[in-house]
Amino acid sequence: MEISCEIIRDVLPLYAEDMASNATRNMVDEHLCKCDGCAKELDSLKRAQAVPVDVEITSLKRVGDTIRRRRVLTVMAAMMTLVAFAVTGFVYMLTPYPMTAEEAIEGAELREDGGLAVDYARSVNGRSGWGVFDNANYGLMCHTNRYDKLMAEKKRQKLHRCPVKNWKTILQNCTKQRNVRRESGTDSIQS
After folding, report:
1. Confidence (pTM)
2. 170, 122: one domain
3. Domain containing 59: what range?
4. HEC states along 110-123?
């Protein structure tokens, strides 16, 4: 049975891609042995398939660049957040704050010369004084920061030291003794 070249050329794309059935394949093989024009057509179809399809990749590159840029920005934002937390923690731990008398004074003692010896807590890292210059009144403000206070508490726990609990009573007694000396005239003015 003789099949026309038009029918074979319609089936050649399927034959070139190995998608034709065995019966169609046998029929095309018989025709290609006899017809040089269809054989040339089959060769041109196979060559066309070997050429890669030109795909536009610029949009894919743009998407890839955008994803890469967002990843870099995300990492940078995370790093900046960590730095901000670290700086905030550093400032919080080292910012001075005033201490109460209970926190600042561990003990007090009246010296023989009439002066007052005050034992400050380990966490005190600064103090400033003000007062009336008649040697009767004197104010003292102690300050520390959270880091020094924390370290002093850790050292205190290691040493098993406890602060004097009745410092107010000691200060009152010292003040009374000083007032008695002042009234009796035995108090020497120390500058």
Report:
1. 0.42
2. yes
3. 55-94
4. ECCCCCEEEEECCC
